[in-house]
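We were asked to recover a plausible sequence for a given structure. The inputs and outputs are reproduced exactly as logged, with field labels preserved.

PROBLEM: sequence recovery
POSITIONS: 273
GIVEN STRUCTURE:
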């Protein structure tokens, strides 16, 4: 009888544990009814997300939490490990390079806007006024460095070797008429470097943060036509069908957000939908 009682107790305990684990699993699944946590660069990404949060999300039944990051690495690693649900800060060439190098599994959901890359200077008013031997600062991450060099190539400042892609470096310059010197820096440092170099190619978000107006202040600026560098909402692969992600994707490409981008950024950020 004692053995039968002991067996029954063990069975009841096991059942309770199973029930507990099932409940925990249910709780985990119900997280999709909680706030969607999105990692974003402060400008313009977090500003756009906060507009959605303050003006559109509640009516759509979406709880949204925005976490700001100032670097280009943490948002993807945080999305990969589940610290955040999604991110909004990057373009396809950058993501392809990141996934390849870091072994992450981040995928795009919807493209929202383009931040044209621009060449800026405190010393000259036109790109053609750059002196021989001038120093130009460029981003040091693979994709944005190539993008910067392509911008200079497109505007006749340098000429790249034929066929170079998204991994171009200064070594791929075929012709450098002015003998420009290139200083490779982390993208967030570029606006501050303007006092120390003759010019700098700066990502749109960092330019705006530094009170530069890309549409007015850039010596040369990327064209939005057929531009592959649109910024998108992204998630870890497998989470594309999360109802909260779908709601946010719809809101980010709404007429209200397009008007917000047009009114707030005056051509320095361009809606891509």
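RECOVERED SEQUENCE:
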């Amino acid at each position: 009888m004692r053995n039968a009682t002991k067996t029954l107790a063990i069975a009841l305990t096991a059942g309770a544990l199973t029930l507990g684990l099932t409940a925990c699993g249910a709780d985990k699944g119900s997280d999709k009814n909680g706030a969607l946590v999105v990692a974003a660069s402060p400008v313009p990404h977090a500003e756009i997300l906060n507009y959605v949060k303050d003006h559109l999300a509640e009516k759509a039944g979406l709880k949204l939490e925005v976490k700001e990051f100032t670097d280009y690495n943490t948002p993807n690693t945080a999305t990969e490990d589940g610290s955040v649900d999604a991110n909004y800060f990057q373009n396809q060439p950058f993501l392809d390079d990141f996934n390849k190098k870091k072994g992450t599994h981040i995928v795009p959901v919807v493209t929202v806007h383009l931040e044209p890359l621009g060449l800026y200077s405190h010393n000259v008013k036109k790109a053609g006024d750059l002196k021989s031997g001038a120093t130009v600062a460029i981003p040091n991450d693979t994709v944005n460095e190539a993008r910067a060099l392509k911008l200079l190539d497109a505007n006749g400042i340098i000429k790249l070797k034929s066929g170079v892609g998204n991994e171009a470096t200064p070594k791929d310059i075929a012709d450098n008429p002015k003998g420009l010197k290139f200083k490779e820096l982390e993208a967030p440092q570029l606006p501050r470097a303007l006092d120390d170099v003759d010019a700098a190619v700066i990502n749109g978000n960092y330019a705006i943060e530094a009170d530069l107006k890309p549409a007015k202040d850039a010596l040369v600026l990327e064209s939005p036509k057929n531009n592959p560098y649109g910024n998108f909402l992204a998630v870890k692969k497998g989470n594309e069908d999360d109802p909260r992600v779908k709601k946010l994707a719809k809101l980010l490409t709404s007429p209200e957000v397009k008007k917000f981008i047009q009114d707030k950024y005056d051509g320095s950020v361009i809606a891509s939908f």
